[in-house]
Amino acid sequence: MAKCRNPGPWRSRRPTPSRQHVRAALEPGTIRVKDIWRAPVSLAPEHTRTDVWPGHPQPLGARFRVGPDGTEGTNFALWAGGAEAVEVCLFDEEGRETRCHLEELTHEIWHGFLPGVRPGQRYGYRVHGPWDPFAGARWNPAKLLLDPYARAVDGEFALPDEVYGHHRHHQPPELADTVRDDHDSAPFVPKGVVVHDTDTWVDDRRPKTPWADSVIYELHVRGFTMRHPGIPPELRGTYAGLGHPAAVEHLVQLGVTAVELLPVHQFAHEDHLLRRGLVNYWGYNSIGYFAPHAAYSASGTRGQQVGEFKNMVRALHQAGIEVILDVVYNHTAEAGEGGPTLSLRGIANPGYYRLAEDPRHYTDYTGCGNTLHVVQPQVLRLITDSLRYWVQEMGVDGFRFDLAAALARSFHDVDMLSPFLAVIAQDPVLRRVKLIAEPWDVGDGGYQVGAFPPLWTEWNDRYRDTVRDYWRGALPDVRDLGYRLSGSSDLYAWGGRRPYASVNFITAHDGFTLRDLVSYEHKHNEANGEDNRDGTDDNRSWNCGVEGETDDPAINALRRRQLRNMLTTLLLSTGVPMLVAGDEFGRTQGGNNNGYCQDNEVGWVDWSLPDDPTWRPLLDLTRRLIRMRREHPVLRRRAFFSGRRQAPAGIRDLGWFTADGKEMTEEDWYAPSRTVAMYLSGRDIPQRDEKGRPVTDVSFLAVLHAGDQPLDFPLPGPPWGSVYRLLLDTSRERQDVAPDSTHLGGTILRVPERSVLLLRVEPADPEIRAGA
């Protein structure tokens, strides 16, 4: 979903100044505009190196290799369409710079081989070209640029004035981005690091969990590990911490099959956050699409982060857990025209970004100031090269694409035949991994839930909103709930897509935690420093009568019951469930629904909660539900329900019942109701095992009752079932099955208020019962 990253005020709607306006506004003594656009920058390097061999234009980036006559060195290759010259800049331990002019140009790729340059070498680029913001040209060789293909990054991104390509404080401010700044940025920006690429992922077995069997667990590398008592302090907040046995043990015991990591590409912090003493904690501000974020490395930042990341992946794979990366290819950390010059803007601004009709400005479909121009071949190549790198060399198993609709835009509109989607569909590496779309962006026509083609799964926000509304009593009827519980066939039953095209979630990193969803009706984001303006107001939450934490035992008991209701609903629904780290034991952010800048206890998982007697039962319930899902194929179907009556008993593979125990009619779906019962037939599963034998299972009846009074529910009799055994009752803090939990079909079952009951069904026909 669109991140509430507060990119700052929207740019002025005043007419765009012309070059003449800029000339008139320049202060006395300022460089003339006609000189600014093409004036050479004279920076005195410590040394200029002349032994630059031609090298090769492929592959892009800095690749250590053996060159002519067996000489070891590094080949540098950079696509910089429209540039007039490119220099590779090498930095020693004291920060002294050596410049190397790349003389070779092949298909707009500048390249050269530097003998003797080995892994660990820090480097950047200076790219020369015209300065003409009105034409979208923003070359400025005073700015050291990060290689878009850098495998590792050393150093932190701060944002002093020197890293901006323009005079940031020029008056009047609306002209500032048009006036070039010639201060050297090299002392103030991180450097790329040459690493020793292995080219292949070895010594590992990928879990390759089928989509239908997947349970995804969204987590933040730093936030998940920072307070874990079983992880050594020096490893907390790092890849090594996530790969530590203490962290892996929790994931295994919980039963999830995949972790979805919030962004781990190298990212930068926004200026408005740094000025408030905050950082971009979530990391949706990428600047290096090949480099693991260096701050998450316990072993070093001169290439060691690459090996540490791989070891983390291996540890998770050995435990049977896949690794999915949340990736941000829709925009970069360079923001709009007033943002810093860190990489792509200074390499070839018109070639990498979508520029507006007035090319001085950017087209912004992301809410973050810029949008990558994925229609351009070099941008498409950058993204697909990055994806393949993370699969083939870093071992990851899939990707969740932030604001994926922005990637699917052709020149303006979202296009499901766009170059990006077409390339992914035919790529022999990428079409085999898990692909998850966040199917919207912030531009016109950007909401595309249900529209992505086969191969793709999607975050299903319709599921989120419906389940939240049902349990807070805000659904006018149960039509939408029926679709969401059964796999959202209204969205995904086309083009050969399956129920697992829907990633079902109730909470995500963006918004309230599950506990806060039942504790707050309003956001409380004051700690973000934006006067509580940031974050969504559409929370669809219910505080159960009191805003925030309370000592009232009745309200707290109701809140915990609501948590059990929502977790049970999620894990019984057809589709792929996604949990958020800590929701399984009541993590809270104190009502902050936009913790993107909270790198502290607000954003970190509280590991004291699993041992708290108040919250331990919720963790036990979550584990039990995931285990039940794993054991019963009827709960993780690979095909949509037909709803037709099946022989020999004449029951449906999916049955729906009203609060009075009758099969639902068309009219019932449109009637107001706080109760729905769902019958899942384990005999009518349209799939076969690896040897071609039919897959069968037990049948289940789930009664979801959101009313505030108990309900007397008549259990469906023959042919639906003769005996029902109660397995789960969310009205109970602990889920021990009571001795009298067996009920005959046709009898009345007392359903507590606001609860889910799950019952195992014994078939009415003895022959069917024997085969079940």
From TrEMBL:
Domain of life assignment: Bacteria
A GO BP annotation: glycogen catabolic process
GO molecular function: amylo-alpha-1,6-glucosidase activity
Region feature (Disordered): 1-22
Compositionally biased spans, kind Basic residues: 11-22
Keywords of the record: Glycosidase, Hydrolase
One of the Pfam families matching this protein, by short name: CBM_48
Family statement drawn from the similarity comment of this UniProt entry: Belongs to the glycosyl hydrolase 13 family.
Record-given protein name: Glycogen debranching protein GlgX
Organism encoding this protein: Streptomyces mimosae
Gene: glgX
